[in-house]
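dumping this here so i dont lose it
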């Protein structure tokens, strides 16, 4: 996404530093503590003074052979487009992953309960990065497992997203495939989003376009049944505001690879004088242009608004990062309705204050 968080986070939730051993032991407890319930299996987190609160993962059919002692996890259900529908919220590595957020991340899995209470149905979680702080590709697998299992336990689906950098080699494809393949206790990410905005590293426009097209085609060919979300630059940005940002963006060429479109329509970056800073115009025109660009008036779109919302006050950690006002959230909702979009979200959960969260619940959470 356009916004980058500070390298360390304050300990807004819970207490104490991140402990990967605790996360590992917690997930292992899901495997170790097994109880038969009505022909199914219930996995329960073992509790102690150092583990998170008890977590019930709902019972599900399993393949079990009592005579041989073989126990298999439930078969994951087929992925569908449904996670992109309704009200979502966003979490990036600078919010939850210790290599980026520091030892006391500002968001933890306990926050999923508050998201669920606010009517959030999907959390968009940055689960992989391509840099030295993510040497294995994915973020800490124990931590990802905890986010996935706890989200599902409170009724929230998880779309994992990744920012490709369009370099040589298979790094981008490998990370997207790892997100698709990630599974724990028969549960997996409900959707996969590719964040298409990187223009650095000296890659020229034509090469970058070719690698983007190839990435989409490769992933789709290997996973035809996995609905892919294209998290894209808003057309107004690259066609009106700054035509040099990504000239010749290959809308038509990538359209067969993606099933839903998530334009990053962060209107708070646009001035009122431009006509795009009201929460409506930037979103409505971008969705309209996007559908025209891919030649599909009925394309499934989930606009991402933003940034955040604390009554128009600039983010104290980054004064160049203006935040949306409460009034603009209403206009955003009108744009979502007028474009017949299938869902909506605001980037991101951390930058939303209490008033903004309440208003978004009223607009989208019911």
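and the seq i came up w/
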């Amino acid at each position: 996404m356009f916004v980058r968080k500070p390298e360390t986070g304050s300990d807004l939730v819970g207490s104490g530093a991140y402990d990967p051993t605790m996360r590992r032991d917690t997930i292992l407890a899901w495997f170790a503590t097994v109880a038969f319930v009505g022909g199914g299996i219930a996995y329960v987190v073992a509790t102690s003074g150092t583990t998170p609160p008890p977590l019930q993962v709902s019972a599900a059919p399993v393949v079990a052979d009592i005579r041989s002692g073989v126990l298999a996890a439930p078969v994951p259900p087929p992925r569908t487009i449904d996670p992109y529908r309704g009200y979502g919220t966003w979490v990036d590595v600078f919010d939850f992953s210790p290599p980026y957020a520091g030892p006391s991340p500002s968001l933890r899995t306990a926050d999923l309960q508050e998201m669920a209470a606010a009517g959030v149905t999907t959390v968009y979680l940055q689960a992989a990065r391509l840099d030295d702080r993510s040497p294995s590709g994915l973020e800490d697998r124990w931590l990802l497992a905890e986010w996935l299992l706890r989200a599902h336990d409170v009724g929230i689906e998880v779309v994992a997203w990744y920012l490709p950098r369009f370099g040589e080699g298979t790094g981008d494809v490998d990370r997207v495939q790892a997100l698709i393949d990630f599974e724990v206790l028969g549960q997996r990410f409900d959707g996969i989003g590719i964040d298409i905005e990187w223009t650095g590293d000296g890659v020229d426009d034509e090469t970058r376009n070719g690698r983007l097209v190839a990435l989409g085609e490769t992933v789709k060919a290997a996973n035809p049944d996995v609905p892919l979300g294209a998290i894209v630059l808003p057309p107004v940005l690259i066609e009106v505001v700054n035509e040099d940002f990504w000239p010749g963006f290959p809308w038509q060429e990538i359209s067969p690879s993606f099933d839903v479109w998530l334009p990053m329509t962060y209107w708070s970056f646009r001035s009122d004088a431009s006509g795009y800073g009201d929460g409506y115009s930037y979103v409505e025109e971008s969705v309209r242009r996007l559908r025209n660009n891919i030649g599909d008036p009925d394309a499934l779109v989930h606009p991402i608004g933003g940034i955040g919302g604390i009554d128009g006050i600039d983010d104290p950690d980054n004064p160049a990062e203006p935040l949306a006002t409460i009034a603009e959230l209403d206009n955003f909702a009108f744009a979502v309705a007028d474009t017949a979009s299938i869902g909506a979200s605001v980037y991101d959960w951390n930058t939303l204050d209490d008033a903004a969260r309440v208003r978004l619940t009223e607009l989208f959470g019911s």
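Confidence is low (pLDDT under 50) at residues 2-16, 31-66, 311-315.
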